[in-house]
Structure formats: structure tokens, C-alpha cells
Amino acid sequence: GSTRASSTAGAPTLVPTLKTTKRIDFDALRGGRETSGPGASTGRATPTSTKFGMATVAPPRTPPKPASEEAVAPNGPKVSGKTGKRDEWAVLGDVGEYEYMLARKMAEERAKLPPSPEVLPDLPSHIASESARLKGGAFDDHYKRAYRVLAERRAEFADAAATLRDGLDAAIDAEAKEDRKRVHSGWQLHVKMGETSHGNALAKWDAQKREWERVKRERAIAFNKRPGDLVMERCDEHRRKLEILGHLDMAVPISEREGGEPWLWKMSLRDNWTRWVNVGNEFSGLYYVRDEMAYVDVEQIRRPQLHGSVERDGASDSVIRGRSVLDSKFMDVRRRKLRRRVNDILPGENGEDIDVGLEIVGEGAVAALDRLAARRITLEELEEQIASDSLETWAEIQKYRSDVAVAEANRAARELAALQAEEAAREAAMGPHLHLESDRVMAQMRWGEKTAHATTTMRNTGTTAIWYRWSQVPPKAATLPHASNAGPSTFFMEETTGSLLPGESRVAMWTFKSEKPGVYIDEWILETTPNLRAGPREPVVVRGIYHADDPNSYPRRMLAAEIAHREMRTKVTAAMARVFDRVKTPDKFSDRRVATKFSPIPASGPAPALWNAGNAGRRPRVYYHEESFEAFMDVRRRCIAAEKTLPPEPTEEEEGAGDGEEGEGGDGEGGAEGAGEEAA
Question: pTM for the full model?
Fold first, then answer.
């Protein structure tokens, strides 16, 4: 309750300080907390230590991880290192309730934390290229998340394999230690010798196999052959053939094998089914005894068939030899025929139930985990993972692929249709084809003309030269009721025959001539050699019109000219009236210069000179003004333009001719009046 203080005398003096009482508040999560004293503000006392008589402050600790138990309840009860549980005496209440409150508080704090940025791995090149094709890489993030999940799963497989491998190594080491203990504790000698002999036999077999493979490789290199083509590799096939032939020979009935029925009674007399074969002639008295039923050899002298080998027992892998003896049709027929007897003599010899030795089939757990961990991640696995994570994303991917497939199919269909259309057009264009510009032509002839012409163009659009001929077929009178049928002297054709090369064109021309006005119709048929692929063409209709003379032509034209002249005069009068209406009398009190007031300064130039020359003797006098002059010139220009649109005025000869026609018509007085008005 006191601190050191300095004194003038140098003696230590105790200075009293304010002593406060500590108050401890208990929090269910944070534990005890001081609410008064040096560490009351932070909830924990500031750790101090005294060294060399001086108080030092401990360095700050590393802040705990957010939303962790240290951050939520720093002074709360901890998990015991011995039991792995919280002590009941350290918790005020139930331990389960405390842990539930702690987990809920940690979840609330974790929800307040900002979301951490998602780190996605890079895709391999063979998957990234496929992902980039899907909608321009819109699904890259989904493929990367699926790749991350599969990569983590591969890592779990690798960790599990390492754990199992370590456990197996530990078990093997423990077993070796146990064996060493047994050896030193007086283990049975015959057991040790048996295991040692088995190991030596297996090691010797491995050495023999290595030696066999070495010799086989050396011989193959020396003779420049495949290993399967060597004689030493065909030994198994030969031994297997001998075994099969021996078994088949034993399966043949004795009556067939030994010469038929005459031998049966001899073999059944003495020593059942024992054959006595003469040695030498029949009277030598020497016999060879052969027991037929004892001639059974089931020993196999061949290398055992390896597990997983696709080769048959005893088959050779030679590629230069022909058909193997095991595939002989004769042997196959004999084996099927004697199958039942072979089973009776040698059960299991047919190949279905032959035991070639004990085989362990399967895969170890460590090997399986290593295989799964080292397996390459494929696009199919990624898509399966995406489908299991989000069906909506997988549906979008499937829809996009189906749209792309449909678009590709439509494009291919369009290309195919275009190719088919081109091919059909090419095939259709082959052969004789002829195109006519028009099937209906017309010729018009006015009064006074002698002839008129009607034309159409023929073009050879095929690949064959065509010879053609035009022939006239007069139509029936009912074809055109108001027209006259054409006769031989109405329509003429100068060139009725000819030929057209492929791509060549020619004009067919008809000449129309008639003495009487009217409408004439005719039909012409085009015949070709060879015949056109499109079939015979319809007849070409030729129509001719001869217009009669119009006696009222001149009066109608004069009336139209008079109407146009009067219309123009009315327009000019209206335009001049609009100009004059805008002209006002100037105010005499005004100092402004107007158009009717003489300017003291004479105007110069072509426009004033033209004005003054034209109005020199006019009374009352008029004076030049720019605006008025431009207005009059505009009216003049419009009048000249309108005059050019009028029809030409008739000359004196035409007027005289018109008077004569009118006189012939019985109206000479009216014609004279019209001529006088026109002259005026």
C-alpha cells in the first residue's frame, strides 16, 4: 500500500497511496472479471513483473483468432488436457449448457465477420479449353469449385493411403520385433526351417524366371525374332498338344482303338481289359502285356498360366506361324465327340474347372487409394460434381449445349440443303434447256406506217446444242372475240430455223403488216431437237394492232394549245398583280429614299443601265430601285420558263390545211373564225 519516495536526507520514506477494494464480476462465458482496480477497464489485470527493483510490463500477446473460443471466452473454463473435457467444478452450472452457449456465441461472432474472398484454383489446360467454349467461359467458377472439391478428395485419398501404409509398416516392424523375441526365447527349429525353405523356394523360382526371360531376350536379339516366335516359347504348346492327344486316345472306346469286336472276347478272358500283343510272329510265344485302363497320365509339364493373361493354356504368341494346333477343326470335333468319356477318365480336363493353382484376385486398400489419388481429374467427373452440387447450374450447361447442338445441326442442315439445291440445279441445268424472254409479244403500227416488228429473245441455258424451228398455228376465232384472225399475209418471220449453242442467245422477230386497221392475233409453236427436259413449250402469242387515222386530231391539239396559252396568261397576270400590290406610295414627309424618288447619285452598272434604257420616254417617270428591279426580273424569268412548256404555235400551212378540213366537214365559217383568232 505504499511506494518509494526520495528524501532530502537520503532515508527511505513511506508515502501512503489510495487503496481500492477489488470487485470480481462473473460472466458465464468470459469467467471472472475485475470491475475495479488497475485492470478494471479491460477486464483483465495488466501483468507486471519486478526486475532489479523496477516494475516492467509484459509484452503484448498475439490477439486470438476471431470468433474462436479464446476471443469469445478468454477467461472461461478450458478443456482439460488429461480427460479432454471441461471440469464440472470449473463451470457455474451444467457443462453441456455452457458448451451450447459457447457454440451459439461463436456462431454469432462468426456471422458478424466479413466474408472471406473465395480462392479458386486454376483449371488444367484440357479442362480450361472445354470450359472456355461454354458461353464464353461463363461457367468457369463452377468448374473451378468442382475441381477444388475433387482435388481435396484426391488429397484425402493420398492421406488415407499414407496412413494405411504407415500403419502396415508399423505392424510389420512390430511383427518382426515379435519374431526376433521368439527366436531368442527358443522358437521351434522345424517351423523356422520350414518358413526359410519356403522363402528359398520362392526366391529360386523368381531367379529361374529372370534367367528364362534373360535368355529369351538374348535369343530374340540374336536371331532377330519376336520372343513369341522362338522355339523355346513353343514348348508349352507342344506339350499341351501331346497331352490332349493322349487324353483323346484314352477316351476312344477299346473296341474302336484295338481293331473292333474280335478283340473284345480276347481281352475279357484273362486279366480284365489287358491286351497281350504278340512280339514277332504268332507262334513265337512272346507277348507284350499292356493294361489299357492304367494308361492314364495326368501330369502337366508346363509353366503355370499367369493371372490376367488372355492366352489359353499352352497357346503360343507367335505372329509368323499360321493356325495353332489347338485351333484345329479335327481336334475340336474329336474333343466335342469324346467330351463325356474324357470327363469320366480325367475330370476337369475339358478346361472349365481346371485349377492351375491358388490365385489371389483383388486389389489392396493402399494400392486402391494410391490409384484413386493419382487418377487424372476428367471433365466427366467435374460435370458429375457440378450436377451433384447445383442442379440449376447443370441444367443451364445442358441447355446451352443443347442450343449449340441445335444451332450446329441447323447450320449443317442449311449447308446440306444448299448443297442439295446446288446439285439439283446443276442436274436440272444439264441437258437441253431453252429460255424465252416472253411468251406474248405485240407490234403496233400507226396510220401511214407500212410495217411493225415484235421481238423476243431465245437463250440456251442447258448444256446441249439445240436445233429449233418456228411454225405458225392460226388460233381459233373464239380466242379473241374482238380481234381478227391473222392470215398468211399479216405476220411474217424471216428466220424460222436455226441452232443455239450452250449459253448462246438469239432474237426471234416477227414482221406485222396489214392494210386495214384492227387487232390481229397469231400463235407460233417452237419445236426443238432434242426435246427440252421441261417438256414442250406453250405457243407464243403474237398480237398486232393497226391504228386508224383520227380526223379530229388537229382541232383537239389547237384547243389544248389555246387552253395552255390562256392558263399561262392568267398566271402571269396574277404574278404581276402580287408585285404591284406590294408597291406603296412613299410618304412625302419621309426622308427615306424610295423607288419613285430620283436619287441625286446616279446608279451605275448593267442593271441600272438596262432600266434607264427601257424607261427613257415613259411618263410618268420611273426610277431605278434594286428591290423593284429584282422583283420584275424574277417575274420575267418565270414567264420565260413557262413559255418553254407551251406547245409550238401552228404555222400558216397547218392553219390553211386545218381550214380546208373544216371546210370539207361543212363548217367553213367556224374554221375561218378560228383561224382569225389564232392569227390575232
Answer: 0.36
